[in-house]
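Hi U.,

Before I forget, here's the chain from the pilot set. I'm dumping it here mostly so it's searchable later in email.
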Amino acid sequence: MLLNAVVIVLREVLEASLIISVFLALSQILNRSLKWMLLALVLGLVSGFIYAGTISTVSMAFGGIGQEIVNATINILIFMALVIFVTAVPHQNVQRCRRLTVIAIMSTVILAIMREGSEVLLFITGFIGVPDLLGPVLMGGAVGAGLGVSVGVFIYYFIVNLIPRHGVWIGYLLLLLVAGSLMSQAVEFLIQADLLTSSEPIWNSSNIIDEHSVAGQLLFALLGYEATPQTSQVIAYICSMVALFCVAMFSFIKRDRN
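Structure:
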């Protein structure tokens, strides 16, 4: 149980930590104020507590598929915020774009903490009535959270210590991976809710990396790894990355022309 708690909490914390660290680093490179971080963290944690506390009500909404719809919506909203972010970044000399940058960052961080934080809370509170397991779960959760935050800190310092131009593009690359993972997960939620048609997996890589193993869980958090992805998930993964890349390139090209 201790190892399971480490892996599960690490996966959830790592997803949020990756987003936060990239945005922190890019904010520093762009000379944007970091005061938003405290507010975004507080709002994200409060939202996570509220979501976790109302999860039973949410789950029963829409005929019992409320949780899947809400989770898919959160992922789609984060993707939209990323689109706004990469659109506004090249135009930081425009006041409106600077404001959009901060709004996009805060929205993404709040939603990411809300979703991942609620998952951690639900996992841990599920053992409150089992004293023999609660201690190991709390210990494993603390270790997993510490590892996830440590990875985020490493990514932050890695990006900020690069040449600014290189740092921006490394940050963009990580955001592309985040975007692909988010939209693939959103499609999976919609399939679970029977709002999208299920299909046979395109491939099965479980014999290479089991998605329930430690490595599989880490790859899921970092890259959105699925051992048995369906066609719609792969399409969503690729199309979202291509769309975000094209929007970013178009925005930079537009800035250079102007």
